[in-house]
Fold this protein.
Amino acid sequence: MLDITNMKKSDFYYDLPQELIAQHPVEPRNASRLMVIDRDSGGIEHRHFYNLCEYLQKGDLLVVNDSRVLPARIYGEREDTHSFIEFLLLEQRGNDVWEILCRPGKKAKVGTRFVFGGGKLTAEITEVLEDGNRVAHFTYPEGNIYSVLDEIGQMPLPPYITEKLADKERYQTVYSHEIGSSAAPTAGLHFTKEMLADLESRGINIAYVTLHVGLGTFRPVKEERVLDHKMHSEHYEIPERTAELIAQTKANGGRVIAVGTTSCRTLESAAALYGKVIPCEGRTEIFIYPGFEFKVLDGLITNFHLPESTLIMLVSAFLGYEKTMNAYRTAVAEKYRFFSFGDAMFIAGK
């Protein structure tokens, strides 16, 4: 039995063989496997993602995160010494001013200039932050920073993916629109445009939120006591139409199903702040772990997450600790594919 007041990160550990970490996406997108879990009983079915429609009902609402990943990893050289540098753009702080992660960091002192793409992009370090990240001001001879990054940047794939991605769009959802994430909201990678159209034709509604996924997604929980962990801050936005659809769905007895932990955190952040989901934007540091009382969610679609991560803690809060850990043990035994390019689970009550 989990002691909610004294949870340890080790409570959320499971043994994962290296070969189960997915290195590339399956084709087509919705051919990935789907573990269907009854939220009430913990019962498990093994299906494929294209079977999802069989578990959705007319009047249900899928809430997806339309954030688009920036090709934010760039390689260049220091202007004066021509020594190698790697930047990862984390968050825009102003016009052409970004918070970045760089390595080797010792080369990036305030005032140092770097060149990328043979001069297509230059950067000057303007500030060194407490956590070691930098702030850089970028300049470019033509276009805008997004078009330049699209040309010279690489997708910021998680460190556990060692194979190079052939097609950048496979690390984007088919509905991605609002550029600004450092990582993909990966639960949405399983949807095809055709599947979304089919779901809508069956009376299943789709609503959009935006949460720009930050690098904190990959940061491990360092504190052994879970409640001592501090979440990273991320920007989110909920449009008026989404708030209306959620209210209508609840009033009509439908289920609100979050596609991904980012959509979940967005909805529950707004509800925690305002008592219900309203049109809003802001920043969230919400940390969802067992004992959390959900105000919005009736269902969750999510991938399989890293051991001891805040994401497996969120799933445990929604499904229950014992049921979650059993699902993960089952996924390992059944050789599901894990993490960003891996398989998915769908958790809901009847």
